Amino acid sequence: MSRAVRFAPLALLLLIVAALVWRLATPADTNVHSTLEGKPVPAFDLGEALPGKPALSSADLSTGQPHLLNIFASWCVPCVTEVKVLQTLKDKGARIEGIAVRDRPEDLADFLAVNGDPYERIGSDERSQVQISLGSSGVPESFVVDGKGVIRYQHIGAIEASDVPMILAKLEQAR
Amino acid sequence: MRALLLIAAMVIAQPLLADSNLPPSYWSNRQLPDAREEAEAQALMEQIRCLVCQGQSIADSDAELAGDMRDLVRRRIAAGEKPSSIRAWLIDRYGTWISYKPTAEPAAWPLWLAPLGLLLVGVWLIRRRIRLKGG
Questions:
Q1: Is the dihedral of CA B84, B90, B95, B99 positive or negative?
Q2: A47-48 and A67-72 strand pairing
Q3: Of A30, A36, A102, the CB nearest to B93
């Protein structure tokens, strides 16, 4: 057996170890991205999430103005900090619409009373059906929707204070 | 005493569950009354990937979103929709990632060709063996 062949298994092992080390050092993106960016928001018509708050349908998202569609829930921990950032965005002129996933009116009312309410409308998605139709895989998640109702950007996870300029720019681009 | 109390508190503490307060959707853990429809739904659910416990199918997963996806699949099957059309609807939203059924896309060609390649290598190895013995 030639020397090269004899060392082949060792070389193979080193190659495998190198590949494993590389994957550990640069973890793969495990986020599931919606493939609806650039496509219109799927038609939906959700009921009101709590009494007195306007409900949300897809028609409310194609009014000629860009919207930030926020998928959230009162039982979602990161949403507590995110909703305060949404208030900042609202103060800077963003129109924010909410979809409350698997939520109860009383829980939602508590959540908004404690953390503030930046939403113009909130639709109640009791069986996550609209969330699934948007290609969203969790809460919180947000979509920048342009004036014609076309999804321009998907933000996975909470919008942090440091994301505010970026989101405002995306909304401006979607005008 | 304080340390003991602290330990007791840690033992009693419940992990914060990232789940809602609503019960599972109606069809998430309930079989369709029509056995043929349920079999169709089950076959599809075993091939749809859970978005939360990536690597499990929605048939296997206990995640709430997986339950809601089972609810969606069963409702659509019961409404007369074909499994292939429900799969296509999901792929439109989440990409081919959502389906476990291998496709014939170029990215999957190595998958289809690997068995053939391994078979050829095997034949080549055996031929060498036979020739060595014969010689």
A1: negative
A2: unpaired
A3: A36
- Give the distance, in angstroms, between the CA of residue A155 and the centroid of all CA atoms in the same chain: 4
How far does A138 lie from chain B, in Å, by closest CA? Answer: 8
Burial B111-130 (b: 16+ CB within 10 A, else e): eeeeeeeeeeeeeeeeeeee
Structure tokens at B117: 């390649």
Distance between CA atoms of residues A158 and A164, nearest Å: 11
Interface of A to B at Cβ within 8 Å reads 30, 32-36, 73, 75-77, 101-104, 107, 126-129, 131-135, 137-138
Give, for all 175 residues of chain A, the pLDDT tens digit: 678 888 989 999 999 999 999 999 998 888 889 999 999 999 999 999 999 899 999 999 999 999 999 999 999 999 999 999 999 999 999 999 999 999 999 999 999 999 999 999 999 999 999 999 999 999 999 999 999 999 999 999 999 999 999 999 999 998 8
Instruction: Please provide the distance, in angstroms rounded to a whole number, between the alpha carbons at the two ends of chain B.
Output: 85
- Verify cis geometry, omega within 30 degrees of 0, for the bond prior to A140: yes
Q: For residues A131 and A113, what is the distance between their CA atoms, to the nearest angstrom?
A: 24
Q: How far is CA A64 from CA A149, A170, A174, B58, in A?
A: 8, 15, 10, 38
Alpha helix ranges (H) inside A56-163 = 77-91, 105-115, 129-133
Tokens of A109: 């009312």
Residue pair A57/A47 in contact by the 8 Å Cβ criterion: no
Which stretches of B25-99 are assigned E, i.e. beta strand? none
Of B22, B68, B97, the CB nearest to A132: B68
Q: What is the chain B residue with the closest CA to A40?
A: B93
CB crowding A72-81: b at 16 or more within 10 Å, else e:
bbbbbebbee
ipTM: 0.86
